[in-house]
From TrEMBL:
Family: Belongs to the ABC transporter superfamily.
Lineage: Bacteria, Bacillati, Actinomycetota, Actinomycetes, Propionibacteriales
Keyword Transport: yes
Provenance organism: Propioniciclava sinopodophylli
PANTHER family per the UniProt record, alphabetical: ABC TRANSPORTER, ATP-BINDING PROTEIN
Protein name, UniProt field: ATP-binding cassette domain-containing protein
ABC transporter domain location: 2-228
Amino acid sequence: MINLTHLTKRFGATVALDDVTFSVAPGTIVGFLGPNGAGKSTCLRSLVGLVRPDSGEATVNGMAYATLADPAHVVGALLSADSFHPGRTGRETLRLASITLGLPASRVDDALDEVGLTAAEGRRRVGTYSLGMRQRLGLAHALLGDPAALVLDEPANGLDPQGQRWLAGLLRSRAERGCAVLLSSHDLHEVSRLADRVVMVARGRVLADEPITAASSAELEEQYFTLTSGADRAA
């Protein structure tokens, strides 16, 4: 469903991605781990057409994002919770998105309900939202088209423990319905508990790509720090 194949990208003298190859199958959650500057965000942005790779391919359902006839039904993305207009209400934000994507207005209420934003919260302006509420709004935006794949960058950021538990349930439920979930995170414990596989990157290269269903949080942490030691740099 989600495939990155020999993906390479340079920004000037900096190699952001160096022959990155991995995939996310339908019905699975892949934890995407790496220190700051590892290339995670560049990978995710390549998948949704915001970055053009120098070589290689980033595809969802076998097609580049720009060529998808109905992208909202294929892939939903949350890359930043700070990209919404602060003067609009949460509901207005989703309604405008639904019009742009050609989706029925009913999907707005469905998405708000799925992410746990009440009708009253939907009527509030986004500028008054907490970070956790903005994350929920971003997830609602990603879910509007009921997509077959989700590409998420730190979706638990700003969520309290109850919110993190809710998010884990949401993502597992989506995976059980056949959704392919690519989850970038710095929370090693959450990834060890939730994901089916882990892909670790540093300095733009894939260091590990393996199942983690049997790994404990401590084992995953040890592997992560062993592989990425000294590899973090300014994002």
